[in-house]
Amino acid sequence: MKDIITIFKNRNYSLLFFAAFTSQLGSIIGISAFMLYLLNRFSEQPFYATMAELMYSLPTLFVFFLVGVFADKMDRQKVAAYADFICVLLSVALIITIYIDWMPLTFFLLFLRSAVSKFFHPAESAMIQGILTKNEYTMAAGLNQMTGSLFMLFGNALGIFIYWNFGIQGAILFDAITYLISAILILTCKINEDIRLPNGKMHWRELSARSIFGDFKEGLAYILDKRLLVYLIIGFFVFGIVNGGLSVMPTYILKYKLAPDTYEQVLIYMGIVFGSSVLVGSVLASVIAKKLKLYQMIIIGLLTSGVFITVTGFSTSVFMFLLLNVTIGLSLPLLNIAIGGWLPRIVDPKMMGRVQGWITPTMMLSQSITLGIIMVTFQKSLTIEGLFFLVGGCIFAVGVFYAIVLPPYGEEGYKDEKVIVELESKHI
C-alpha cells in the first residue's frame, strides 16, 4: 500500500493513469453496448457481433507503422491528447449514423475511431516510462492490471445498464465524454520536454514516407537485436488471442448453450465474478512478483489460464461456467503484470514508442486472426467446445515454449540491462 501511495504522489503519473482509465472505460462500455445492440437486432446472425469486434481490432494493422514513429518523433503529450479529441468527434458522427440507420458507414466510423485511438497508448506508455523509476515499473504494471480488472468488473455491467436505459446512442455519448475527460487530463500534465520529445523537436511536415519507413525499420531492428524482447512480444501475441477469444466466447457460450433466454443478465454476473477474481489476482500477483522471478510468473500464468480456458468450453451449467471464470481471472494477472513490469526495464526510452508501435499491432493481429476464424467457422465447422479448446490450447502451447526459452534470462537478469545483454550473447 505504501508503494501505491508513493507512486500516486507523482502528479504526472496520477493524471496519465486516470486519463488512460477514463479513455479505456468509455471504449469498453461502447464495445459491450454495441455487441448487445447487434445481437438483439441480428439475433440469428452472430456474424455481425464478431464483425463489430473486428472493427475495434483490425484498424491497428493499417496504422501500426505510424503510431510508434509518432510517439517517438512528435510531442507525445499532444499525440495522446489529439487522439482523444478526434475520437470525441468520431463518436458524435457515430451517433448520427446509428440514428439514420446506415450500417456500412457505422462500421466504417467504428473502424476509423479505433484506428485513431491506437495512437494513444504508445505515447502514454512512453511518457509513463520517462516519469517513473525502474523500481516502479512492476508496481505500475500491477496498477494497470487492477484497472483492467475493474473494467471487467464494472465495464460490461455498466455498458449493459447504459444500453438498457439510454440505448446504443447513449452508450456512445458516454464514450465521447470519457475521451474528452482523458484529453483534458493529458493536457493538464506538466512533463519535461526530454520525455515528451526524447529525439528532439520535429514538425509533422518533416515526416515523410521515407523517414517513417526508416524509423519503422529501426524499431524492428532494435527488437530483433534483443532476443529477450522478441520472446516478450510473443507474449503480447498471446494477449491478442486471449482478448479476441474472450471478447466473444462468454457471450456465445451463454447465448447458444448455457442460458439462451437470460444470457444478458448472466453476462453481468460473469463481469462481476471475473472482474473480482482478476482484481484479487492482481493483488496476489503484485505480492508474488516480490517472491518469484518474472519469467516464472509468466509461465505459470500461461499454463494455468490455458488449461482452465479449455475446460470452460465444456461447462454444463452457469454455475460451473462462473466457477471456471474465477480460476481464469486469478491466473491471467500473473502473465500481465510480469510482462508489463519486465518490458520497460529492457527498452531504451528513446525507442519505447517504436517498440510499443510493434506490440500493439502484434496483439491486434492475433486478435483479428482469432476473431476472423471465429466469424468464419463458428456454428459451421467450429463448435463452442472447439472454440474454447482452440484458444486455450494456443495459450498452453506458448506456456510450454516459454518454459523452454525464458529460464536463461531469469537469473536476476531483468534487474540489470548489462546482465541481460550478456545473457543474450551467451544464449543459443
From TrEMBL:
<feature type="transmembrane region" description="Helical">
    <location>
        <begin position="228"/>
        <end position="254"/>
    </location>
</feature>
<protein>
    <submittedName>
        <fullName>Major Facilitator Superfamily protein</fullName>
    </submittedName>
</protein>
<feature type="transmembrane region" description="Helical">
    <location>
        <begin position="320"/>
        <end position="343"/>
    </location>
</feature>
<dbReference type="Pfam" id="PF07690">
    <property type="entry name" value="MFS_1"/>
</dbReference>
<keyword id="KW-0812">Transmembrane</keyword>
<dbReference type="InterPro" id="IPR011701">
    <property type="entry name" value="MFS"/>
</dbReference>
<feature type="domain" description="Major facilitator superfamily (MFS) profile">
    <location>
        <begin position="12"/>
        <end position="411"/>
    </location>
</feature>
<dbReference type="GO" id="GO:0005886">
    <property type="term" value="C:plasma membrane"/>
</dbReference>
<feature type="transmembrane region" description="Helical">
    <location>
        <begin position="266"/>
        <end position="287"/>
    </location>
</feature>
<keyword id="KW-1133">Transmembrane helix</keyword>
<feature type="transmembrane region" description="Helical">
    <location>
        <begin position="79"/>
        <end position="99"/>
    </location>
</feature>
<dbReference type="GO" id="GO:0022857">
    <property type="term" value="F:transmembrane transporter activity"/>
</dbReference>
<dbReference type="InterPro" id="IPR036259">
    <property type="entry name" value="MFS_trans_sf"/>
</dbReference>
<keyword id="KW-1003">Cell membrane</keyword>
<keyword id="KW-0472">Membrane</keyword>
<feature type="transmembrane region" description="Helical">
    <location>
        <begin position="54"/>
        <end position="72"/>
    </location>
</feature>
<keyword id="KW-0813">Transport</keyword>
<feature type="transmembrane region" description="Helical">
    <location>
        <begin position="12"/>
        <end position="39"/>
    </location>
</feature>
<dbReference type="InterPro" id="IPR020846">
    <property type="entry name" value="MFS_dom"/>
</dbReference>
<feature type="transmembrane region" description="Helical">
    <location>
        <begin position="294"/>
        <end position="314"/>
    </location>
</feature>
<feature type="transmembrane region" description="Helical">
    <location>
        <begin position="355"/>
        <end position="378"/>
    </location>
</feature>
<feature type="transmembrane region" description="Helical">
    <location>
        <begin position="384"/>
        <end position="405"/>
    </location>
</feature>
<feature type="transmembrane region" description="Helical">
    <location>
        <begin position="142"/>
        <end position="164"/>
    </location>
</feature>
